[in-house]
Amino acid sequence: MEIYKLPELPYDYSALEPYISKEVLTLHHTKHHQGYINGANTLLEKIEEARKNNSDVDYKSIAKSFSFNVAGHILHSLFWQNMAPDKSGNNKIEGEILEAITKEFGTLDRFIKEFSEIAKTVEGSGWAVLVYNKTEKRLYISQIEKHNLNLLPEYKILLCLDVWEHAYYLDYKNDRAKFVDSWWNIINWKEVNKRFLEN
After folding, report:
1. Among the residues of 30-188, which ranges form H helices?
2. Rounded-to-integer distance, Cα 137 and Cα 157, Å
3. What pairs with residue 160 in β-bridges?
């Protein structure tokens, strides 16, 4: 059973250099992201097999693992779309998302500072995310531990940054802060604005 499949990247593996190397992007996409997909599909097979044989499984364990793997797949799929080569023409922030960021944070520089600090201070493995609550019509920055802890229901993810070590270690060693600072050069703001307008 293959419900979940690895999405193709919207650019070549070398397209985000020098900020993310071809080696790191290739490993991240084909090994780590693929691993979460494999995990989710395997768990679905176990559930189907148990139902077919009218047998029991460790539902608590499967539910937790399934949440972890599917969330990893979803976040990575967003992460690839949130980036673009620095000469693609998509890296300039403008339009409604810039207006919303300025309204919420005062200035773009203030937003970048807050988001960067939140990304740099994730404990262990996880993500920094910019989310939008359409009920309150407000932007928030949050951390996601691993893939599936601290998710905010009803908050749409507009921008996400993976700060698991596999996202940067071969390029930046243990200097997560340098990776975060470099990442701002390859954000696909056109995609972020598109997601914001879909609310």
Report:
1. 34-53, 59-81, 96-105, 108-120, 169-172, 176-183
2. 14
3. 129
What are 65-99's pLDDT values in tens digits? Answer: 999 999 999 999 999 999 999 888 899 999 999 99
Rounded CA separation 142/129 (Å): 5
Element (H, E) at 24: helix 22-27
For residue 21, what are the CA distances in angstroms to 39, 84, 91, 163, 182?
26, 13, 18, 15, 12
Question: Which domains are seen in the chain, by residue range?
Answer: 22-81 (1.10.287.990), 96-197 (3.55.40.20)
- Please enumerate in sequence order all residues whose Cβ is within 8 A of that of 121, keeping only pairs 6 or more positions apart, or say none: 143
> Average of pLDDT values for 30-39?
98
Size of the chain, expressed as the number of residues it contains: 199
Distance CA 25, CA 15 (A): 9
Please list, residue by residue across 80-95, b when 16 or more beta carbons sit within 10 angstroms of its beta carbon and e when fewer do: bbbbbbbeeebbebee
Q: Is the pTM of this model over 0.90?
A: yes
Confidence of residue 151 (pLDDT cuts 50, 70, 90): confident
